[in-house]
Design goal:
This protein is α/β, with parallel strands linked by helices. Among the domains are: 3-104, RuvA domain 2-like (Arc Repressor Mutant, subunit A, Orthogonal Bundle); 111-299, Tex N-terminal region-like (Orthogonal Bundle); 318-439, 2-Layer Sandwich (Nucleotidyltransferase, domain 5), CATH 3.30.420; 633-706, OB fold (Dihydrolipoamide Acetyltransferase, E2P) (Beta Barrel), CATH 2.40.50. It has 29 helices and 15 strands. The strands form 4 sheets. The chain has a 5-stranded mixed β-sheet with strand order 6-5-4-7-8, with helices on both faces. A 5-stranded mixed β-barrel has the order 11-12-13-15-14. A 3-stranded antiparallel β-sheet has the order 2-1-3.
């Protein structure tokens, strides 16, 4: 099986589409570039399909690399038969491949190795042959030596060798592996000495718990793993021992001679309890953990995508407030581009209660800096600050927004924040981030490590490499789907553009500082280290508002500019007169421009861009208001219906901000009346919803909500 057939078997995609996609990936083309500008080559595959091909390609390459290593190792031992070589070359299952390799793997000094060194392998072979033996003890006596002093030691050594043979038998391992995959039970129990500890209470559901491993959802499995990691739980995976022993007996036992049967059954039991069970239970557990990790990462990825693609307010003058009590409210004023104009600290809340002074200052700042909107962080004192702002009679109309400030403290202490604001402390930087999140959430959130944004489940328990790769892929996808203003984008934002890494992003910002704003996409070629390949991959995702060539502010790729120029010439207009000119665009006979280089799919995309160049795919921002009567959990009553905003989505439900310190949980069963398998298909992050209070646990500060009534 070659790479193309390997991918096709797992996806069902067309062979030509796979071949071309693999070719483009091998040429270091990025997924956003391939999906947007090579549609004819891929057969119009989207980013998800291309990413799937990329992952399967990596899996294939990993298997091939491992096969080469295994073959080399066995060959060096002089044990590589043509039959074994064929089996390994035709194997595309890593577990089975490791089974093939197991007998040849370099081992630490096992009991079987010691027994072989003591000359007991011939005895083990005789027993395993299961021919009639008239006197087993007499036979064993022949193998006594300085190292093997008794008949029982000889028989024990032979059993150790047989146990290892059974463990290394690929047929037996495959059969037992299937039993584990189908019937394994995961169990967790509290460590008795930890039961009374306060920190153990969060794992109380798992103090004495068991369920089918294959049916254990991601969040439960990861919760048990965390409980074990923190030292409160013991977790194990098990199967029906008698069922497994029966499988091995049926596979190897063929004698009816009691003495031989007894030795083999003892070997079978020892092999399973000492070798097979620990190995395969760990393998199946790790397989389940990988599945749970993948599910959790998918939830996180979906949430992150929704968060990054939140509606932007756009280029507005914003007054941002990072609320607080004793330390005060940090206030900053930002211009249309997010640049800091002014910062201050006000103390309108307890203990200082300098409310009048704060009101006067806020009115003055709004007027002085021509503020158009106010952004309030949703942390401590957020509701009180929102009430204060809403009560002020400003001299100009203002929209007031409460924004999620998760990760703002991470940004404010980062190297990037220090580079942006070397003269200001973390409180000012945090307030600036809160303001910029309103004007352009994507541009601001890319400055924070994705897993620090706080929209996942068990993100610290999953495979961190998997998490980083998946989340980086999401950020890249979002940045390139929106497009980036070449003349205002930060280094962090530019680094996620197709074909541009951190170093080239740094060089773009340096070029901009030295030479002023870019006037055309072609000017990118003057940036250090930005060669033809990077230009091909990146240029169409970069926008230049008010550029001389209007196509430089669109998603039309520079390689297609000549097509647009030909269309304009045929219509007797200039390119600038064609852009957003519905009447002229309707005259275009699209099929007249199909060539070997430019297909119908590309032409259709070009027409869409001419109609609405650089269209932002994000929705418009909406103002939202919490229930003003709610100030704390004590104000909640069962049956109340209140507005809220979804702040996090997990496998088991979603968390809703209802305007107090504690978020409420809507269990998946209470999201809608119908059964749902994919929670993200029904709800979205930051969706404004009405919820009903189902239960309030004052002791544990937990709120149960419903969206079905």
């Amino acid at each position: 099986m070659n790479l193309i057939s390997f991918i096709r078997e797992r996806t069902g995609f067309s062979e030509r589409g796979i071949e071309n996609t693999v070719k483009l990936l091998n040429e270091d083309s990025t997924i956003p570039f391939i999906s947007r500008y090579r549609k004819e080559m891929t057969g119009n595959m989207d980013e998800v399909q291309i990413l799937q091909i990329s992952k399967i390609k990596s899996d294939f390459e990993e298997i091939q690399k491992r096969k080469e290593s295994v073959l080399k190792s066995i060959e060096e031992q002089g044990a590589l038969t043509s039959e074994l070589k064929t089996k390994i070359e035709n194997c595309f299952d890593l577990s089975l491949l490791e089974d093939y390799y197991l007998p040849y793997k370099k081992k630490r000094k096992t009991r079987a190795v010691t027994a072989k060194e003591n000359g007991l392998e011939p005895l083990a072979k005789i027993i395993m042959k299961q021919d009639t033996i008239h006197d087993l003890n007499a036979l064993a006596t022949r193998y006594l030596s300085g190292q093997v002093r008794t008949i029982e030691e000889a028989l024990q050594g032979a059993r150790d060798i047989i146990a290892e043979w059974l463990n290394e038998n690929e047929f037996i391992r495959s059969k037992i592996r299937r039993v584990f995959q189908q019937t394994a039970i995961i169990e967790s129990k509290i460590i008795k000495t930890k039961e009374k500890e306060e920190a153990a209470r969060k794992f109380s559901n798992y103090f004495d718990f068991s369920e089918s491993l294959k049916r254990s959802p991601s969040h439960r499995l990861l919760a048990m793993i965390r409980g074990e990691k923190e030292g409160f739980l013991r977790v194990k995976v098990s199967v029906d021992t008698e069922e497994v022993l029966g499988i091995i007996k049926r596979a190897v036992l063929k004698t009816r001679q009691k003495e031989i049967e007894e030795q083999i059954i003892l070997s079978i039991k020892d092999s399973f309890s000492r070798l097979l069970e620990p190995s395969l239970s760990n393998e199946i557990f790790q397989e389940a953990k990988r599945g749970a990790d993948q599910t959790a990462v998918q939830v996180f990825s979906s949430n992150l995508k929704q968060l990054l693609l939140q509606p932007p307010l756009g280029e507005k003058r914003i007054l941002a407030i990072d609320p607080g009590y004793k330390s005060g409210c940090k206030v900053v004023c930002l211009d249309e581009h997010g640049d800091l104009l002014h910062n201050d600290t006000l103390y309108p809340h307890a203990p200082q209660k300098a409310t009048n002074e704060a009101v006067k200052k806020l009115r003055s700042l709004v007027n002085a800096y021509k503020i158009e909107a106010i952004s309030i962080g949703n942390g401590t004192a957020s509701r009180e600050t929102e009430y204060l702002i809403q009560s002020i009679a400003f001299d100009r109309p203002l929209k007031v927004f409460v924004v999620n400030e998760a990760g703002a403290s991470v940004y404010s202490a980062s190297k990037l924040a220090r580079e942006e604001f070397p003269s200001y402390d973390v409180t000012v930087r945090g307030a600036v981030s809160i303001g910029r999140r309103l004007s352009d959430p994507l541009a601001e959130l890319v400055k924070i490590e994705p897993k620090s944004i706080g929209v996942g489940q068990y993100q610290h328990d999953v495979d961190q490499i998997l998490l980083k790769n998946e989340l980086d892929t999401v950020v890249v996808s979002c940045v390139n789907s929106v497009g980036v203003n070449l003349n205002t984008a930060s280094k962090a934002l530019l680094s996620y553009v197709s074909g541009i890494g951190e170093k080239i992003a740094e060089n773009i910002v340096a070029y901009r500082s030295e030479n002023g704003a870019f006037t055309s996409r072609q000017e990118l070629k003057k940036v250090a280290r930005l060669g033809e390949k990077a230009f091909q991959q990146a240029s169409a995702f970069l926008r230049i508002p008010n550029a001389k060539n209007p196509l430089d502010n669109s998603a039309v790729h520079p390689e297609s500019y000549s097509v647009v120029e030909k269309i304009a010439k045929d219509l007797g207009v200039k390119v600038g007169e064609l852009v957003q000119n519905k009447e002229e665009i309707q005259k275009i006979k699209i099929k007249d421009y199909i060539t070997a280089e430019t297909g119908l799919l590309t032409l259709e995309d070009i027409i869409k861009e001419l109609e609405k160049p650089g269209l932002d795919p994000r929705n418009k921002v909406k103002v939202f208001a919490f229930d003003p009567s709610l100030k704390s959990i004590g104000d909640l009553r069962t049956g109340m219906k209140i507005p809220g905003i979804i702040t996090n989505i997990t496998n088991f439900g979603c968390f809703v901000d209802i305007g107090i310190k504690e978020n409420g949980l809507v269990h998946i069963s209470n999201i809608c009346k119908e059964f749902i398998s994919d929670i993200s298909s029904v709800i979205q992050l930051h969706q404004q919803v009405e919820v009903k209070v189902v239960d309030v646990d004052m002791d544990r500060k937990r709120i149960q909500l419903s969206m079905t009534d």
